[in-house]
Amino acid sequence: xxxxxLKKYRISFYCAAILLLLTACQQQKHQPSVMFGQADIQDDAxxxxxxxxxxxxxIATALSGPETYYxxxxxxxxxxxxxxxxxxxxxxxxxxxxxxQDSAELMRKLAAGEADLALTPxxxxxxxxxxxxxxxxxxxxxPDLRERTIAAERxxxxxxxxxxxxxxxxxxxxxxxxxxxxxGLFQSNARVAGVDWRLLAAQCxxxxxxxxxxxxxxxAQGLMQxxxxxxxxxxxPASQVFEPSQNIAAAARYIAELQRSFSDIHERTERLCxxxxxxxxxxxxxxxxxxxxxxxxxxxxxxxxxDRYILLLAQPRYYRDPVVKAGYLRGSETSxxxxxxxARWAQYRGAAHAATLSVTPQxxxxxxxxxxxxxxxxxxxxxxx
Length: 385
What we know:
Layout: E1 10-11, H1 13-26, E2 33-34, E3 39-40, H2 49-55, E4 57-63, E5 70-72, E6 75-77, H3 79-90, E7 94-100, H4 103-111, E8 117-118, E9 125-126, H5 131-140, H6 145-157, H7 183-193, H8 197-208, H9 228-234, H10 244-261, H11 268-281, H12 283-295, H13 303-312, H14 316-319, H15 331-358, H16 365-371, H17 375-384
Parallel strand pairs: 2-9, 4-7, 4-8
Antiparallel strand pairs: 1-3, 5-6, 8-9
């Protein structure tokens, strides 16, 4: 970090960390405060509220976790994050969070000027050279703020908070091989995405149940549940996010981008699982699971091996491992997302195959039964194509 954020501190680090932790324990519950560490600071090293506002960015550091801070589909979530985002808005800046692997690193980042604020529940900590920031924080804080934020987060995560106005059945006509009224859009965008169009259909049903107005608890929108930040990245205007053709086209571009991101996985059918996982949970989380897989002796390019660590990224032992960059992941959701889409894709391809058989006069029941394979055999065949 350049300029004023390159503070020239001479820190007796361990003494500072111990003093900070002891002082934190003595603070009144739920009340943020300025914490003083042992640091020799030059006069020009101060970086306070006015500097933060001028930069337009408040930098906070936090330990990753479901209640503090985590990333999902490229967006930040967590109780401490939501409060910090509200405070950043209050002082007129955006918020950026830097994850620390442990408490020692968190305190080092704060003391070294790499962060303006440490999100350490129940008290937050600022540097002793930021009295304006500390004063603004104290003036903004309310005693019941954390409880209200926790309640709001719980409500947001409830299933009843997912908005679906007109969910369709998983298949319009099995006999005719018609999956949805959007089949033409899936077919026209499949080449861009580099996948079978029925995989796009299976993913769409998993995302929105073919409801073009669906909105998730996390803010994902439309048929393919595109997050606002992803929409902006893909050039999809907010005014068009609920337009089926635009939503599916943007999702196809994103899938193509993810395919390139995982080009090191040469086996195409394996790569599809990684792409789906990244679409749901984020590329960095998938790479974290791959790093854990390699660390513990598995094959990081084999989905069945990596899937285990996708699940384990919900446990502190794993999401705070030094090889992990993005921290906590709602792993069961991402693992189930991949599994369910692959299974439905097999069903869609099987239905299309059955529809073809039903209009072939030469086929009798014996031939049909011989050509319709078990679900496991069919899935294996589907993944090889």
